[in-house]
Write a structure and sequence with these properties.
Layout: E1 2-6, E2 16-18, E3 32-37, H1 49-58, E4 60-71, H2 73-79, H3 85-92, H4 106-115, E5 118-125, E6 129-136
Parallel strand pairs: 1-2, 1-3, 3-4
Antiparallel strand pairs: 4-6, 5-6
C-alpha cells in the first residue's frame, strides 16, 4: 500500500508524489492507502475533471482515505466585493507557469466523489478554497 500526493504541493515524508498530468495507469486500482490532492481541482479543466476524479477514486483501497480540493468558484464570486480584481486574478493565477485551469464548488466535487464510492467524512472551506475528505466504501 502506498500513500500518494497529487498536485502542486510539497511532498510529505512517506508519500509518493505525482503530478496532475501523470498517467494514473501505473498505479493499481486499490493500491493507495491514502491520496492527498488538496489543490488538484485548480489544474483540471471542466472537460477532464469527472474522468480524473473517477480514476483517482479507483486508486484508493477499500477503507482508504482521499482528500480533494481547490478553489471554490462560489466562494471566490462571493469575495469579489471585498477583493480587488487585481487581487482576485493574483489569487486565481498566482504564477502563469502553474497553468491553473478550473475552479469548482465544494458540492460539485463532493458529488463526484460520492458517485465514485467515496463516503464523505469532512468538508472544509476557508475564504476561497475547499478540501473534501472521505473514505472509499
Amino acid at each position: 500500500m502506498i500513500k500518494l500526493i497529487v498536485g502542486n504541493v510539497e511532498n510529505l515524508n512517506g508519500y509518493k508524489k505525482i503530478g496532475i498530468t501523470k498517467d494514473l495507469s501505473e498505479i493499481d486500482d486499490g493500491e493507495c492507502l491514502e491520496i492527498r490532492g488538496v489543490d488538484i481541482c485548480n489544474y483540471l479543466h471542466i472537460s477532464e475533471i469527472e474522468k480524473y476524479i473517477s480514476e483517482l477514486c479507483k486508486k484508493v483501497s477499500h477503507g482508504g482515505t482521499i482528500s480533494i480540493g481547490g478553489y471554490d468558484i462560489w466562494l471566490l464570486q462571493q469575495s469579489k466585493n471585498s477583493i480587488s480584481l487585481e487581487d482576485l486574478n493574483h489569487l486565481m493565477f498566482p504564477n502563469p507557469s502553474l497553468n491553473i485551469k478550473g475552479a469548482y464548488t465544494l458540492n460539485y466535487i463532493a458529488n463526484l466523489m460520492f458517485k465514485n464510492g467515496i463516503i464523505i467524512k469532512n468538508k472544509y472551506c476557508d475564504e476561497t478554497n475547499f478540501v473534501i475528505s472521505g473514505v472509499r466504501a
